[in-house]
Amino acid sequence: MFGFMKGLGVTLRQLPKKKVTLMYPEQKPVWPERFRGVHRFIPDLCIVCNQCARVCPTDCISLSGTRGPDKKMRIDTYDINFDICILCSLCTDVCPTESILMSDTFELATYSRDNLYLDMHWLYENELAYERNHPERFVKDAEGNVESEKAGDAE
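Below the sequence we write its predicted structure tokens.
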């Protein structure tokens, strides 16, 4: 009986306090800038150095490229298997051109594991969506093109 009264007392003390629960699908939480969600990818910056694939502890990144007429490597395919990706951010740390970054997207629930194998086109669309959702985090040049993220986000 005493345990029941003690539990009821805790419940009654919490009733007048402000609620901290969000109605999740309708109300999204505000994530900090350094939140590690699904990757963003900028294919124009990638030099196909393969460092991201080598450093990945789960070996979930695969990429290939060809040498163009100007003797520079160009990315052909960039795929990440999010079925086994642990979102450790090691691939973003070693990328010399910052072509792969983390976003605040995390909702990848699906009925089929085949849908978790994402290519560079999906990752680039995620980059564009991130830029649309967070314009305050990017610096624009004179023509209005996105140059880079603000210096406060880089280490």
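Residues 151-155 have pLDDT under 50 and may be disordered.
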